[in-house]
Design brief:
Radius of gyration: 28 Å
Number of helices: 16
Strand order of the largest sheet: 4-3-9-10
Structural class: alpha/beta
Number of strands: 15
CATH architecture of the largest domain: 3-Layer(aba) Sandwich
CATH class of the largest domain: Alpha Beta
Oligomer: single chain
Mean pLDDT: 92
Length: 504
Amino acid sequence: MTNTLTGRKEPFEPIRPPEVRMYVCGVNLYGPAHVGHAMSYVVFDMIRRHLEWSGYRVRHVQNFTDVEDRIVARAAAEGRTIQDIADANIARFFREMDALNVTRAHVYPRATHTIPKILEIVKGLVDNGHAYAADGDVYFRVTADTDYGKLSHRHLEDMQAGARIAVDKRKEHPMDFALWTAAKPGEPSWDSPWGQGLPGWHIECSAMVMDHLGEQIDIHGGGHDVIFPHHENEIAQSESYTGKPFVKYWLHNALLRLGDQEEKMTRHLGNIVSIEDALRRYTPDGLRLFLLSSHYRNPLTWKEDAVEAADRGAERLRGALEAAETVVRRTAGSGQDSPPAVALRAAAARAREAFREAMDDDFNTPTAIGELFALATETNRLADGLAKQRSEAGPPEGAVGALTAAAETFRELGGVLGLRLSTTTETSETLERDVRRFVSEEPALAGAVAADGAVPALLDRILEARQAARARKDFQAADRIRDRLGEIGVSVEDYPAGSRWRLR
RNA sequence: GGCGACGUAGCCAAGAGGCAAGGCAGGGGUCUGCAAAACCCCCACCGCCGGUUCGAAUCCGGCCGUCGCCUCCA
């Protein structure tokens, strides 16, 4: 994996294998998250899944920033407490992450619940000369940290020239940053040796890491934009406090962009696509496939066409898995592989190996995804032969074993990427209303289908009625039914073994 | 000004010295009552200019363009 700290790709050797301690920078809770955040969490979810698939035991901690200028400002403006705002956004965040199939971290600490540890570290830094108090604030003394700048690979001198740093007379050095700040009237605050105050932004992560994972961890992740100053300061204060190397591997995902200028998506610029909107328009698998379609260290641009393409790709993968499982469900295996089945088994084994190799190489998801598609083609090829009763496909019984293996491979590898690969059967109220209205309006269904019951069962009965129409060569009615269903979001496909509906 | 990344087919995106994975879209077939899905076939010489090399999209130099960090930010 590529380590931001060294700037190189390095073999992964955790401190205490098979245990891996991983901390991922979480969201500021002043508002809802957007698809850029989703990308970061999908990326680190993929990383965790791959590590676990590789035999590691991952302990995953992700913070919630629930006290900070923006939340405080919003609370004041809306007459709410910061807890109130934080709670609401946490609930929403979990809802959206669950929808995206992001595995939950083991712990989600909050800054406001970590005050004792924060104060302990700040006191320690003051005591050992790495920090100083000034008018109720406490600043980290960057000049006391000899390797300050090592993560972002920059030097104090370089940063001062042309830097947009507001000079604060109380600071010894312009780059000194606040560990603790005196509370202004009306701000939430806690007691401290320096008076009523609240923590600076960077210190919370150091404290939460140490509280929940220890003083030295394996992986620390976050977006590329948080390398400086956030993670740089985190290393500085943590290592100055413990005297030990803080994190072994620093991982950063490149940012998602949006717009004609392809600027990074960020709440400050307002160029945002909310996760809620994204989930309304695309399937979770499609979104994950899109977010993982470029390597995590390369920037990706949110474009409707590209997301749409990924969503269709997800459909293709689902289709291949379903084709395999349908044959397996309907056919008893003979235990004897037909020649094409032997080929599919080999393809599945090859896909698994190539997938692992790609993922082992700094989490190369684009290549790994390519392997999934290659397997889809092989699976469909065999299933297609069977559907057409082609003799070269061999007897159906001879394909069951291989199709089972292919399906298992799909589920296993798809699982590493967090893909569910399940066919949508979730119905909306709109769809339900449309289907019922259609049943009552369509003459060919009169008397054949009652407009009650669950939508999936209803659709099954509609297709049965349509099948009857086809049988009596009433293609006009059959086509009308298919067209009308298409208009309300249900596609119909006819196969030798029967028709199938799918929700789009 | 300092540090860094990127520029591959209509779109998205891997590859990183030996004649360009994959997806989406498009074209042509097969199958089908028709359609869809699926299968088969077709569709790039890698921003520009030099250099190194038997050989470069891959290495080096220059140029052009885009983006990121240096302030809040996943």
